[in-house]
Design brief:
single chain
Length: 198
């Protein structure tokens, strides 16, 4: 009976090692906090531009597009920086099997959302771009939950719900976008920072 127990224990340890090697280990709460702050700054700049534009949102649409692109680039750069810093601190490689799986699972909904946003822009339907970005980003997070921490799933579900709400409540879509990409990232980042002490 002891031999069987030992083999089961060995199998459990092998399984745990395999799961660990397939997960993205370099979690940094600071990247979530930084991404949230960048999103809030971008949303404030966008709101200021809309408030100062006498012709409504359409004359400012180019500014909002550049603003959103800057938010995306800065958030990605901060995520790469803080994740690589966390990897160095914990003596872990940044680019692992888990990182590759995470990137593949996230890229499909993200690229689909980007293509849909571009199509909406081309069809002169910018009102639907903020909800689409929230929904598809949320789908990307939910899709990637198998390769990272559990909290990512709840962040993803929250982003999806905010995106759906902003489809119905179009007057508040900039606020909901800012809440999803800003405040929720900061909350997630604070929780991750506390949990992983990065």
């Amino acid at each position: 009976m002891n031999a069987v127990d030992d083999r089961l224990k060995d199998l459990a340890e092998v399984r745990a090692m395999m799961e660990q090697s397939s997960r993205f280990q370099s979690i940094s709460g600071l990247s979530g906090i930084c991404a949230g702050i960048v999103a809030l700054v971008g949303a404030v700049l966008g709101q200021l531009r809309l408030a100062s534009s006498p012709g409504g949102p359409f004359p400012s649409i180019q500014f909002l597009a550049v603003d959103a692109l800057c938010v995306l680039v800065l958030a990605l750069l901060s995520s790469i920086y803080f994740s690589s810093r966390a990897a160095r601190k914990n003596n872990l490689p940044l680019w692992t099997a888990g990182t590759k799986l995470l990137a593949v699972d996230m890229s499909i909904p993200l690229l689909t959302g980007a293509a849909l946003s571009a199509a909406l822009w081309y069809q002169n339907q910018p009102l639907f771009i903020p909800p689409v970005t929230l929904i598809f980003y949320g789908l990307a997070l939910v899709s990637a939950r198998r390769f990272t921490v559990r909290e990512v799933r709840w962040l993803g579900l929250s982003e999806i719900l905010l995106g759906l709400a902003s489809l119905l409540w179009t007057d508040a879509e900039l606020f909901l976008w800012a809440f999803g990409f800003g405040f929720l990232h900061i909350i997630y980042g604070l929780l991750a920072y506390r949990k992983f002490s990065q």
